[in-house]
Amino acid sequence: MPDPVVPQPGGQKTPEQRLVDTTLTFSMDMGAALTAESGVSTEEREAVNALPSGSALLVVRRGPNVGARFLLDSDVTTAGRHPDADIFLDDVTVSRKHAQFLRHGTSFSVKDNGSLNGTYFDGVRIDEALLTDGAEVQVGKFRLTFYASRVDLARLANA
């Protein structure tokens, strides 16, 4: 692949510069291919594809318990180091009542509960954020990937 061309001062273009079409059409088949390339196992992909409407899945990608999966299928799912948390994350970097995953119909958000180390959405510290498919949520040392129901994503795509 050729080296990238650096624009010349004053907006002048060198002969090597040319327009390139960067339009990309996304399909569900492509989504499956992208998922396969992003380190998702066949078992995880099958679990995501089997999610019913109004549910989602969190998969631990980094930190203790790599590969653990947590089903989001209630209006409020708590995450923290407290033994009664719905998602028990046993590490000192996680507050006892660190965060909540909230369901809003067929979408989900994550809300930090005033934790010491914060909750991060795609690398940005948040108080609350609407989750998107494939987004990363960080709670302490744990990095979790959020997967929405494919049924709900298909409905959104056809709306």
TrEMBL record:
Signal peptide: none annotated. Residues 77-126 form the FHA domain. The keyword Phosphoprotein applies. The keyword Chloroplast does not apply. Coiled coil: none annotated. SMART domains: FHA (SM00240). Keywords: Phosphoprotein. InterPro entries: FHA_dom, SMAD_FHA_dom_sf. It holds the Pfam family FHA. Transmembrane segments: none annotated. This is FHA domain-containing protein.
